[in-house]
Amino acid sequence: MAKSSFLAFDIGASSGRAILGILENGKLGLTEVHRFKNQMTRIHDSYFWNIFSLFDELKTGLKKCISEFKVQPNSIGIDTWGVDYALVTGDGHLAGLPFAYRDHRTDNSMEEFFRILPKKQTYLLSGIQFMQFNTLFQLFASVQQDYSGLKIADNLLFTPDTLNYLFTGIKKNEYTIASTSQLLKPGKSEWESKLFEAAGIPQTLAGEIIQPGTNLGELLPEVLVETGSAPIPCIAVASHDTASAVVSVPAQGENWAYLSSGTWSLLGIESPVPLVSEQTLEMNFTNEGGVEGTTRFLKNIMGMWLIQECKRIWDSQSIMGWHEIVALANNVKPFKSLINPDDSCFLNPGNMPKAVQEFCAKTNQPVPQTKGEIARCIYDSLVLKYKFTIKQIESVTGNKIEKLHIIGGGAHNATMNQLTADATGVPVFAGPTEATAIGNILLQAKALDKVKSLAEIREIVRNSFEVTEYTPSPKLDWETAFGKFEKILK
């Protein structure tokens, strides 16, 4: 296989990277070209994303790849978090900064929406897990609050599609990111008109849906001038970051699950069909689009956001390293206090340690006082939520999960990996940590006919990156802790 180069832009809710991938002889090598911060901007008590700053950072990444690393990539691809979107006017300008999903305008939007279209019907039409920040509820809240941006908008573009548009001038919505919106029919790249009607949004706003791996065309001339790039295409990869991450799961066979571990923990399976029923409604599972006709049947769990926000508060007093936080957690008694990681009080509380303490007090548990106690409470609770979720998946599918692949940044945390294996009783395979960028890069390669299939992509991943196995060896009473955790969820 001849050498090919691809530049992946992987943007999360707290940071973004430009990752250069070199594919040669069936192996992939990665180089981080550029890293930058991403954070919500608070303006008049609303939260937004600075999409123009992100675009500048991506152009900087492309320019550095060419000028500093001396590599002209064959293509670029962009992935981001889900649900958020920009509105574009008829003359091609953005109607304003895109709202951030943690903005509080949707705090009561689900309950109000269900007065128009009942919860059960909404789920059966979409197959998507209910979270107050889903695009459906964001749009509904904007209608209810008479948001002026909607009145001048002709198009809605999800975050990666917006950035693709800024690079190419092409307005298309890619299937995997659109599937996070709760506006599509389950397992289909088709908008569900009944959901648009209930939200009070014209369906024409949403536009055309394209499949992951679509070549959008070349970068705009002004982008080429600014970055020094030769004409290259922008590929609409699996542009929801979890969809790209799942592409790179180094799995073989069946009966495996994945945990994409980062700011959010996405725990699920790759299913050939959507799994939409009253049972999955009760469990609040989601059915999001994957590549090659697959469905990502999964649960969104609050994830490392909980400890990231604690660290942010603690760092304002004295900077702490992640290893120090893990060490403090390991030196306190486990299971003393537990939280429901997905309680709405943890979505954007401002002071996460205080929110953890208040939850424990409200649920009549010992209130964690030290940093180690708060961190241990979070780690134990996340692992028990993983156990709970795996049991739910098994009850829906009737199949026993035999392996759990942990991918993403959370795969670095050896302590959490071992705790997860111990709690679930399932062997854990950790890695690759750069799963999202890898999936992004290899779908670019597939779009340019350098790779033929999802199976070949996963073979390349297995040949290119180290995976660490964690065998269950429980030394703690996980079953008693799980019983306590289940009571907290009720």
Topology:
Layout: E1 4-11, E2 15-24, E3 27-37, E4 41-43, E5 46-48, H1 51-67, E6 75-79, E7 85-89, H2 109-114, H3 119-126, H4 135-144, H5 148-151, E8 153-158, H6 159-168, E9 173-174, H7 175-178, H8 193-199, E10 209-210, E11 214-218, H9 221-227, E12 233-236, H10 241-247, E13 256-261, E14 265-271, H11 278-283, E15 286-289, E16 295-301, H12 305-315, H13 322-330, H14 352-362, H15 371-397, E17 403-407, H16 414-424, E18 428-430, H17 435-447, H18 454-464, E19 468-470, H19 478-489
Parallel strand pairs: 1-6, 6-12, 9-10, 13-17, 17-18
Antiparallel strand pairs: 1-2, 2-3, 4-5, 7-8, 11-12, 13-14, 14-16, 15-16, 18-19
Helix pairs in contact: 4-8, 10-17, 12-15, 13-15, 15-16, 15-19
